[in-house]
Amino acid sequence: MQFRMFIIGILSFFTLTVNAQSDICLGNDTIVCQGESLVLESCSGLQIPGGLGSVLTNPTSVNLSDDRWSNQIPIGFNFDFYGNTYNQVVIGSNGLISFDLSHASTHNAYSFAGLTSLPDAGFDDAHNAVMVAYSDINPNSGGQILYETIGTAPNRSFYVVYVNIPMFNATDCNYMSIILHETSNTIEMHISNKTVNAGWNGGKAIQGIQNNDGSIAHITPGRNVTQWTAVNDGKLFTPVSPTNTSDYRISDVPYHLIVSGSATFEWENTNGQTFPYNNGFININNIQQGTTGYFLTVSGANCNSQVGAVSDTTFITGLTSSVAATATDDMCSAGIGSVTATATSGDAPYTFNWPGLGNATTATVNNVSSGTYTVEMTDDNGCMSTTTVTVGDTPANYPSSTTQVSCPGGSDGTATVVMDPPIGNVTYQWNDPMNQTTSTATGLQAGTYECLVTSDVGCSNTVTVTVTEVPGMDIQVINQNDVTCNSANDGIVEVNVTDGNPPYSYSWTGSASTTSLADDLYVGTTTVTITDDEGCVTSEDITLGEPDPLSFSALSQDTVICIGDSVMLFANASGGSSAYNFNWESNGNVVGNSDTIYVTPTTAFTEYCVTLTEACGSPSVTQCVNVEYPGEVDPMISPDTTGACFPVEVNFDNITNTTETIDYTVWKYSDGDTDTIGSLNSTTHTFYKGLYDVDVKLVSDRGCEYEKSYPDLIEGYPYPKPSFYINPNPVTLYEPFVDVFSQSSNDIVSYKWYAEGAKPDFSTLKDPSFEYPEEIKNHPLLLVVENSFGCVDSLTRLVRVENEVTLFAPNTFTPDANGQNDKWKVTILGVDVYNFKLEVFNRWGEKVFESHDPEGAWDGSYNNKIAPEGTYVWKIRALDFDTDQVYMFNGYVNLLK
Q1: Same domain, 107 and 194
Q2: SS3 state at 10
Q3: Residue 768 phi/psi, 5° resolution?
Q4: Which residues form the signal peptide (predicted)?
Q5: Angle at 833 between CA 829 and CA 837, to 5 degrees
């Protein structure tokens, strides 16, 4: 059967307006601005429309084998059932739950043998139970059992769902559920599909409820230990009232579908897009103009039939606004322009912001200079739009002209500046030596001049003009070669002269040449001076280079190495213009002739010098590197103790005094343990009985190792061994004296006896004696011993003071009323006076006297007269007043007259 259902959230219809990313609940419509984002949440979970079904979004699976009860499971609220309140149940694998928690993890009976109907006091598994379809189903063969509490107080519901479970040894399918409702205390039972398997219990099943002793049951008619089937069936069990659950009414209700377990959830929208469920959340980003609906869907399987549902829809509407702007141009950059913004769409009222104009908030802004400006408009919905507007400028041109100085160094040049077109009244101000104020300045030497042109409308500009002169001689360097080797003088410069009046004469600094070519120049600046035929003089400075002097671009640094190690020394050269030569020496001895060498110093300080030369013969350069050994390191340690009673926890301080950087320290102990500690940090080690060596190795950051041994540094002292015996032990209540004899080890120097309740209660003798109170009790006797190392140990034994039963019974008495020995009475100590019995018998076995009082006495009478003279047997039965031990005594007494 294929069908489709629709999920309903909370059916509230109202619209929200959102102006920034926020959360809304599914079912609420909202309005946002275009481009914004929001989070849509399924706040109330998923419900089938009209209350005809539910979706368990986070159920718990109960793993049960065939015919088993589950562990105790919390309902999540208090539930009244047949007058009792419960908050836990156990779930049976055969289609029922029970409030009898003693069933937890036990066998769930499947057989109805001997059971004809409910109520029944003898069938225990149906007591205190809710039975949706109590029958022999088997979750081992497929399907699953789920439970979940959903909703909020005081209207929560507890669901138990049997999903697609076959009957025992069958391939059919059963899908059914039990729902307990908070506050109302009603019970719902829903069956999607229930089959009959006649092979077990004759196919019989039970639907209903029964109280805790099997005296009351409410069973669905026709379903009381009978064969029956059900499809899409719902039953409601309603108590007399929510507070009176002594009786229930059974009614039919629409079938309530519960989708759970393998149900699949996802988000969809009205554009046909799908999105992951994401625990009921969906992020909707960059919302565009227009309306789109979003909703949740769920699909699952119910006994091989597909079921599905869809939620209410949230409609999200994206809004936008727009703005236009106009401008009035500035004049002569005087800052007198303006801009105006006008809303072209959106909802009034509107707010404006001009970020480039001091964040002005009016629609029109005056006194604006030329440029491009942005306006931001926000409408009543909070939607913002922007546009730009350009303010122009009415320009003025300032053309200029000059006349040359007729001769180099003269002062007959002129310069002219005008405003075109002229705007208002124009004034001029030159910065020449005469500060001229006319449009044209005269009598100028060659050079650059400025003129400030000002108009009374506020326009102004500073114009720069350059006055030139007739060209003099022009010198051009047509050939130039740098010095080829550092410090040599083979540099070449050749010049060519134009303009002026030839012929020319030449003079060079640093050269003997008088022509246009000099080829004996050193590095640096040389000046050639040229005089033309008219006596005009000009000169030119030419700078020649040369290869850089030889130098070391990189060189091994002074270094410290461990004794006996080798080290690589290197030199990188720069400068010069030909092949390099390296020569390494130490103490006048050559040790290498390449840019990289390896050396092994034999002294604490060795200097290695490298000399750099080149083939062309430029000046050499020498630098030296020092290689030395590190300073001697003597590993020194300081333990906080060198001996104590074991186990000895010793804190070692590393007090090594060194300028070297110690990377780590290795502590090795003769018990086989090793500690590796960073730097010169302290360490702690625990030693047991005996003498121990400590070896220390320091490893520097250079990898150098320094070792030192400390033999027999730490000693763990032994403990004494206390032992003693008590004589006698136990002692009697009437003679509570004991002697104590030490059997402790021979290394003891101190004995301390603590005898609680005794006299004395403390002693330092090796073998003391003690007297204990006359009371039945176990007294602890503590011996504390100490050896010569100060190590202490103790031993406690118990001194037992016990009861002693004593009896004195006279063997003759004379009941002759003379006041002397007229009565026979026993004296007994140590017995329970309330558990005492004395009997006296004559020679024929007749009981002539009986007493339950230890103080009772026989006056010799029997049957109200003095008994005959003779020998009488007595028996006593008594209990120890401390241990209730039974004592039996017997004897005889002579009655004389």
Answers
A1: yes
A2: coil
A3: -85, 175
A4: 1-20
A5: 95
Instruction: Please give the residue range of the domain that contains residue 562.
Output: 551-628
Closest CA to 138 of 197, 67, 227: 67
Q: Are residues 532 and 517 in the same domain?
A: yes
Contact 357/368 with Cβ under 8 angstroms?
yes
Q: Specify whether 826 is located in the same domain as 871.
A: yes
Of 544, 559, 585, which one is at a domain's C-terminal end?
544
Q: What is the CATH number of the domain that holds 665?
A: 2.60.40.10
Q: Is residue 795 located within the same domain as residue 811?
A: no
Please name the residues in contact with 818: beta carbons below 8 A apart, sequence gap of 6 or more: none
* pTM for the structure as a whole: 0.35
* Mean pLDDT in consecutive groups of 10 residues from the start of the chain, 897 residues: 26 36 78 88 57 73 94 98 97 96 94 93 96 93 92 95 86 88 97 85 94 96 95 94 96 81 73 84 88 76 53 83 89 82 91 94 92 93 91 84 80 89 86 94 94 84 90 90 92 90 90 93 94 81 94 93 91 93 94 94 93 92 94 92 94 93 95 94 94 95 92 94 94 90 93 95 95 91 94 93 87 90 91 92 94 94 92 94 88 92
Q: Confirm whether 171 is domain-assigned.
A: yes
595: in domain = yes
219, 206 Cβ separation under 8 angstroms: yes
Cβ atoms of 677 and 699 within 8 Å: the answer is no
Tokens representing 305? 């039939």
Phi, psi of 173 (to 5 degrees): -140, 130
Can you spell out the DSSP letters for 797-812? EEEEEE---EEE--SE
